[in-house]
Predict the structure of DUF3905 domain-containing protein.
Amino acid sequence: MSEQPKRSNDTASYDKVDTNIRYNEKNDAELDPFEINFLPEHQQGRGPREPFVNEHGVLIGDHQYESDNSPLQQWSEETDPSIMSGDQWVHPFKDVGFQTTENRELFEQNIPPQAHPFLHPDKDVAYQTFDEDSDTAEGAQPSQPASRSASKKK
């Protein structure tokens, strides 16, 4: 597996993308139903505003989400999921994920996301392997999720 180069600035992961493509000749990069009203501080250094072809030959930002060159179209048990990680797979301005309440509040109003919808108030559902206070041998998985309050009383 090849090692990712270190990012020298905010747009380093977009250095290998190609925005000089036929798709952009006929489409206005400013007009997009998935784009939100980013505050000025969230617009700087994000990457290209227009759709681009990433280093794997996949068009990103057209909202079709399918491409013959995409690993998603050629997935098998041998495919390493990490091939689909990184900024080169997400459009910095026109991603459907920006429409979520949390992202709109963050990028349009500077309201940070609240953790409470994503955390259970009294249960730790992480494997005990990763819990410092666990007596479980490394690599073992608990048969049931442990209660945080119960595991702290040991």
Remarks:
- The two ends are 42 Å apart (CA to CA).
